[in-house]
Each structure stands twice: as C-alpha cells, then as structure tokens.
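Could you please review the protein record set out just below?
***
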Amino acid sequence: MWKFTSFFLYLVTILVLGQTLLAINSFDCSNIEIEGIKFNLSSLDKTNIHNNTIEPTPPTFTKYTYHINPCSPLSYDEKLEPKYKCEDGTYICQIVFNYIKDGEDERATYIRPIAAEELNSTITLEPALNKDKEERDLSIVLHGGMYNNEPQQANIRFICTKDQDKDSITLAEYKENTLFMKWETRAACGEKSHEEDKGMGGFTKFIIILIVIGLCYFGLGAAYNYHIYKAHGWDLLPHLDFWRDFPYLISDVVKYIVNSVRTGSRGGYSRI
C-alpha cells in the first residue's frame, strides 16, 4: 500500500507544480481571449500617473495620486525618492499626500500597493455602459496588493473608444480595499478570434509543462547520480527502484479497483 501512497503523492506534486506554472503565466496583457474575442492591451504597458482628487482637510490638503500599469510592474525615475513609490513588483500603487500649500511641506501619509506580483487576475466581459455601443466592456480584476495585512485589489473596466488619441482613466472610488476605475482606450476594442488563430489550449499547455517537468526531473536526477555516485546506464535514473516497481504498482492499483467494484456489486458482503 505504501507504493500506492508514494505514487499518489508523486502525482499530486506534479499536478500542483503544473497548475502553479499555468497560474503564473495565465495573464498576458498582449494576448487576452475571452468568449471568442481577443484583446491586446500591450500599448498600455507603461507607468500612468493619475492625480485623482484634492480634498481640503483643514488646516491641510490631501491629494490622492495613483501609479498604474496593468501589464507589468511599475517603473520609476531613478531620482524619485523611495517615500514616493511602492515596493518593487507593484502594478498599481496609491500614494496619499498631505500638505499645507501646494508644493510646500508635502509628505506622503499612505503608500498602498493595490495590485502586485501575484495578480491572480479575473477577466470577464461586461455589458457596455453605453447602450449605443455594440462592443462589450472588458473587466479585469487584479489582486496581490497587501496593506495593513488586508488584501487589496483593482477592478478595471476597459471601455472601447474609436478615438485613436483618446486614452483616459477615470477613478470611480476606492472602497472596501478595492480600487474601481474606468479606462477608455482604443486598445479595449477587441476582435473576434478565428478557429485557426487559436493558440494552444489549457490542456495542451498543461501537457507541455508536464513534459518539461519530467525532462528536468530525469535530467537533473541523472546528472546528480553521475557526479555523486559515478552511476552509469540505468543507474543514472533517479529513484530507480520506484520506476522498476512502477508496472507492478499500476497492476496493483487496477486489481484493487476491480476488486472494489466486484465487492460493491455484491452489496458489500463477502463469503466467510
């Protein structure tokens, strides 16, 4: 039974690694496809600085500034002081300034990463806000930010506009650790994908990842056995005893399943 347990744990490990790699590579700003429509947001791959509002908070003023890049981590001017930027790997950063007069005694009171490296993006198509439009709006939720031990996220609604020069961000509000924004841009105008243009599906990518993991496993294992134990031939294979017993392991599993089915078909009773 220990062989079956070892095999099961080994299989689960491979599946978890494969799913992890798929999740890491699941969001590609230049190649988003949902419900048969393709989007390319690569033109938005830059740091956008958006000053939202200035609120009077007597005897001072409070200003909200956002650094936004939906495609890759933010890049800053090397001369910018650390107190005016989020940590590396942040995609969307909120900085709250407080000052007495514009440009005088300005200081950052909050630096909040909204979306960061582990995006775990959620992508959906929503009805267009403008009922006269045929295109549906692309909605993307980016996660990964953390502030005061509370997870943050950004809910971005990309709205298609035919105006080539229009590229405007409207911040709706920040509430319950979520930043809501609308982004009108030509890049949000999707195109219907054709069957022949479709790339590899998720299952195909998973199989490829399994093959890569297998090659790494056997390659590194063989190199280790060669350099450490001076092994040759079949002895180069990592965990050789396991692979020798593998056919018998499969046979035992099949027999176990068949016997379980037969026992179940008799109502669970067996002859004494």
